[in-house]
Backbone:
């Protein structure tokens, strides 16, 4: 049974220990010490990292009351080995973990909402609470109360109560273990069974900031950050707001108004542009119609465009064939593909789909349509002009001769 130094003194960063055994498993070495300040993964809190002599500890876990320290190279010194934990990592976990106790306690006290899930990730921390619908006001209330608990700098104690005392404690949740029950008390404010590591004063959490929340079935997942993570979160957000406020030449408080104004102007411009575009197309359709060759009362409009938007070209064709007695043979090309649309007025008896099938092999094309309109594209770009010419010839010979 490894002596858990992190429960005796949570601030212990360096210690010496004797190595009791080293087990080799899949190329890694699992080291057992007589005592350890390394926190093993558990209760939602990630494991510590650090060093045993020169061996880097990359993973720590507990099994049958033994703590295993996983290293790549086994330490050589077995007696009085110098051990050191990565304090920056551990202190971050302590800040986030105690922050979680405080926030869970706030939701419990204010709204009678229990915490049923906890995840301490590398960037954010989440808790799942038993409230399906939560308002912004409730979030702000819980956040405010939590920060009050932090700024009152309350004492955090570890209790190992006997069964009698345990029964009398107002526990926020029931313990998962049946022996050696450890209760973390935030100075008469919150009692919660927990085996993790926490600072001894709430003030060390610094600040709690809720980032966002989402409803998941009957619960709400609250994402938040504490201490240094909250500072980092503030830093990038502040940078982003400053950049945007400089870009818009407004005060930082007015950035959102400036962005919303630009967005709405952009929407209006898009609408205006579309309406101008539509008007322009009316003129273009009329010009093409007027310039068309007339053969036996049918106007044939045959035109190759460069890099024209195909949707727009189809729209143009549709506009023209809404006039009587007109056939449209349009193509557009870029470096990689040629696209064709063949269309006619409703009363003309030419099957455009069949026509398309006849000429499309010239551009190595795929596509189709109905007797009135057919379209498609292919990669033989250089044949676009000749394929439309072929279509025109077929119409002249077969239908208009
Ligand atoms: Zn805890």
Residues:
């Amino acid at each position: 049974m490894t002596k858990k130094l992190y429960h005796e003194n949570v601030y212990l960063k360096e210690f010496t220990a004797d190595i009791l055994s080293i087990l080799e498993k899949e190329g890694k070495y699992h080291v057992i010490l007589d005592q350890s300040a390394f926190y093993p993964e558990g209760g939602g809190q990630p494991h510590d990292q650090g060093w045993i002599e020169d061996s880097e500890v990359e993973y720590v876990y507990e099994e049958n009351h033994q703590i295993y320290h996983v290293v790549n190279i086994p330490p050589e010194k077995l007696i009085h080995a110098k051990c050191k934990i990565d304090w920056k990592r551990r202190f971050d976990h302590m800040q986030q973990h105690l922050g979680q106790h405080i926030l869970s306690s706030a939701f419990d006290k204010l709204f009678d909402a229990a915490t049923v899930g906890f995840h301490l990730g590398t960037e954010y921390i989440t808790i799942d609470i038993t409230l399906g619908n939560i308002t912004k006001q409730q979030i702000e209330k819980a956040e405010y109360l939590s920060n009050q608990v932090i700024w009152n700098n309350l004492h955090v104690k570890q209790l190992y109560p006997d069964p009698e005392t345990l029964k009398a404690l107002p526990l926020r949740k029931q313990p998962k273990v049946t022996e050696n029950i450890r209760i973390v008390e935030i100075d008469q404010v919150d009692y919660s069974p927990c085996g993790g590591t926490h600072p001894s004063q709430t003030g060390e959490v610094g600040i709690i900031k809720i980032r966002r929340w989402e409803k998941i079935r009957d619960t709400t997942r609250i994402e938040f950050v504490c201490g240094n993570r909250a500072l980092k979160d503030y830093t990038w957000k502040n940078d982003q707001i400053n950049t945007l406020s400089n870009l818009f030449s407004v005060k930082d408080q007015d950035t959102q108004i400036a962005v919303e104004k630009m967005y709405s102007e952009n929407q209006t411009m898009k609408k205006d542009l579309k309406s101008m575009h539509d008007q322009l197309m009316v003129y273009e359709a009329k010009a093409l119609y007027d310039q068309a060759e007339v053969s036996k009362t049918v106007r044939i409009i045959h035109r190759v465009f460069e890099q024209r938007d195909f949707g727009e070209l189809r729209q143009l064709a549709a506009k023209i064939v809404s006039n009587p007695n007109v056939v449209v043979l349009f193509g557009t090309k870029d470096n990689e593909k040629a696209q064709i649309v063949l269309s006619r007025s409703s009363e003309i008896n030419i099957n455009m789909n069949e026509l398309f099938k006849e000429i499309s092999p010239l551009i190595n094309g795929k596509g189709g349509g109905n007797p009135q309109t057919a379209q498609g594209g292919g990669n033989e770009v250089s044949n676009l002009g000749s394929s439309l010419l072929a279509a025109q010839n077929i119409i002249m010979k077969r239908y208009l001769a």
